[in-house]
Each structure stands twice: as structure tokens, then as C-alpha cells.
Inverse folding.
């Protein structure tokens, strides 16, 4: 990790005003914000670890857990909600053996719910990485999202 962080920090002066872009670069590099990287960012910018953590927790864009190779975002907006999004989310949690916000042990899938993905006519739907999966039925979750044996 040190080599990657050094590469990231090389593009900055270390001023505390650079905390957000530094955290964005760290997350781009690792897929999330590892705790030791937060500590190094605090050291580099000369602010407390608590301050860096406060900034990172304030913005919804930052993650503290890694994502799976296939990140599933189940839409829970109005159209998806009335079309059964909660049942889809429940089926996914049971099928994958994880709860919303978690990642499978093999790092294949991670799961979260989001307010709206803008595909209301395709409800209920989800995004898997950058691809929309539409009209999901809870009974089809296993076929749509196969687990490795």
C-alpha cells in the first residue's frame, strides 16, 4: 500500500484543503478507504485522523468496505418500491448470504440499496456495476446472479 499511497500523495502539496481529492484518489486506487490509508492521509495533510474520518463519513461517495467484483445496487425508488424492490432485496440477501452493505466472502458480489437509478419504467430494477438489470422477480434472483460453487 505504501507505494500506491506515495504515488497518490506525489500529486498533492499536503494542504488540508486537498483532503477530499486525496480520499477520492485513494478510493479509486483501492475501491474503498482502508483505515491505514486514512491514517496516512491524516499524517500527509497534517490534520487529525478524526478530521479525515469526519470528512470521509460526511460524504456519501466514500466507502469503508471493499466492493465485490459485481456491485449490485437495488433501486428502492417509488416505482421500484411499489413493484417489489423490498422482496428483490430480501431474495438477494438470502441468495447471496449477505446483508445490504456487505460483500460475499469470495468478493464476487456486494449489495446496497439506492434511492433511484432512473429506470422507473423497468421496475423493479438494479444496477450491476454499470449495467441495468430490469423487471427482477425474486424467484429469478438465483438465475440472474449465479454464485460460484
Amino acid at each position: 500500500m505504501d507505494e500506491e499511497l506515495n504515488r497518490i500523495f506525489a500529486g498533492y502539496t499536503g494542504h488540508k484543503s486537498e483532503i477530499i481529492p486525496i480520499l477520492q484518489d485513494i478510493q479509486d486506487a483501492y475501491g474503498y478507504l482502508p483505515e491505514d490509508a486514512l491514517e496516512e492521509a491524516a499524517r500527509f495533510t497534517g490534520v487529525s485522523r478524526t478530521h479525515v474520518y469526519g470528512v470521509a463519513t460526511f460524504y456519501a461517495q466514500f466507502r469503508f468496505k471493499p466492493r465485490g467484483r459485481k456491485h449490485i445496487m437495488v433501486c428502492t425508488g417509488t416505482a421500484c418500491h411499489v413493484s417489489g424492490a423490498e422482496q428483490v432485496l430480501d431474495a438477494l440477501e438470502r441468495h447471496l448470504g449477505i446483508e445490504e452493505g456487505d460483500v460475499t466472502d469470495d468478493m464476487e458480489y456486494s449489495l446496497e440499496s439506492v434511492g433511484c437509478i432512473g429506470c422507473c419504467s423497468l421496475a423493479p430494477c438494479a444496477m450491476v456495476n454499470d449495467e441495468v438489470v430490469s423487471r427482477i422477480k425474486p424467484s429469478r434472483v438465483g438465475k440472474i446472479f449465479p454464485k460460484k460453487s
